[in-house]
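#help-structures
NK: newbie question, is this the right format to request a structure? protein is DUF998 domain-containing protein
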Amino acid sequence: MAESMTIALAGISLFGLLGYLGVMGYLHRSPTGYDPLRHAVSDYGVGPYRRWFTAAAAASSVGTYALAGGLAVTPGFPPLATEDLVYLLLIPLTRAGVALFPTDLEGDRATRSGRLHYLFAIAQFTLIYLAVADLTGDLGVIDPWSGFSGVLTGLRWVVTVSLVLLVLALLARRVPRLAPLTGLFGLWERGFLFGVQFWFVAVAVGLLAAGV
């Protein structure tokens, strides 16, 4: 019974996570007017492509919830820390806030919606990083994830480096020496978000293997 539940949750998780990547791929190929190297991913949530941005957030949230459920059903040994699963459960809530409150485009007047968007985005990025940082080590000693712990570790480094560059790009608006990083804000953010998504996919694949 537990094995079939694990397989079902792993399948749902992969469907949602890969659905997110598919929608994002569509947005990046569409004539949105946004530059992937410079503009934030949240900019897709403003304008005629907003419904696709919302669909991507929903797909990723379903995938994340299913992943958390699967990891709770199949904890392995040693068991996962409770806070790790709590991080995963909270991420979709912050993602919903990001989708519900559109961002302010660069150069536009600051709005209440934009401020709330930034707050939810900060919370989302924080929870995502905590989940990836903590779970990488915890899963790396549990079968079947121990078999590709190098992949999880490598993706964690991608996430970490991208997040550092993303923060530096934000600080660059006040520190002239860091100005060159600002023009690649979109690249750093996509490195973080897509690195995280592939990390989730890798964990979901391990979850599927655990149930087979």
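mod (FA): yep, format's fine, and the tokens are attached above. Residues 2-211 form one domain.
NK: thank you!
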